[in-house]
Amino acid sequence: MNHIHRTSFVAYARRAAVLAAAAFLAFLFTSTAAQAGCAVPSRADAPRIPYANPHTNEEWDGGPTTVGLWHVLYTAESDNNFPPGVTPPPTPFQFLESLKTWHADGTEFENAFVPPTGGNICFGVWKEQYDHRIKLHHIGLMFNPDGSISALFTDDEVVSVSKDGKTYTGSFDFRLWPPSYDAVGVGTPISEVKGNIAATRVVVD
Questions:
Q1: 79 lies in which domain range?
Q2: pTM of the full structure
Q3: How far is CA 110 from each of CA 100, 104, 114, 203, rounded to the nearest angstrom?
Q4: How far apart are CA 49 and CA 62, in angstroms?
Q5: Is 81 left (phi over 0), alpha (psi -120 to 50) or beta?
Q6: What is the per-residue pLDDT across 173-183, written as a single tens digit (0 to 9) for each?
Q7: 128 and 187 both lie in a single domain
Q8: Is residue 55 part of a domain?
Q9: 14 and 83 housed in the same domain
């Protein structure tokens, strides 16, 4: 009898251990799934991010998205006091040339073809509008010869990408502000230039 009881007890202990392990694994997977659901949005909840297709210009089939690198030309149609105190050339004229990168996370970076003191670096944020046009707001700094900040500037753009994804066009509104972030967007800007944009995608050969 003692032998039988010992055998039954061992069998019971083994079954209990198996059940405990199964329960632990179930808890582990349930906990992991809950954490994943909180940390990683589902496809239904995730924001729509434009797809950047790294093909050549001839192979481009990623759809109309700004995501990627572009060569951009800005043509001024009106110039109100930029640079301050200097008579601008007759409009229209080429206001700026740059290389611009649009990132899929909604940020943007631009390197203009001007000296660094002229404010050649800008950072921006963008979003797609209901009509599939893209709205951008970015900001940059200008400097005095001694390295101090002479002014801040903003640039607001609305652009549309061609169906083949190779070009985009739109409008820009460049504004110059005093050298304080708190002054940006307050009152009348020091200078303002408005015009048109034409951009061509830079691709890998």
A1: 68-202
A2: 0.70
A3: 4, 15, 12, 17
A4: 12
A5: left
A6: 999 999 999 99
A7: yes
A8: no
A9: no
Q: How far, in Å, CA of 120 to CA of 118, rounded?
A: 6
pLDDT digits (tens, 9 = 90+) for 54-67: 434 444 455 689 99
Q: How many domains in the chain?
A: 2
Residues 6+ apart with CB under 8 A from 106: 125, 126, 127
| Exposed/middle/buried for residue 70 (C-beta within 10 Å: 0-12, 13-18, 19+) | buried
Residue 138: count other Cβ atoms within 10 Å of its Cβ: 19
Q: Evaluate if residue 16 carries a pLDDT over 90.
A: no
The C-alpha torsion from 182 through 183 and 187 to 189, rounded to 10°, is -150
Shared domain for 170 and 87, answered yes or no, is: yes
Shared-domain flag, residues 86 and 134:
yes
Report which residue type is found at 74: Y
Residue 54 placed within a domain: no
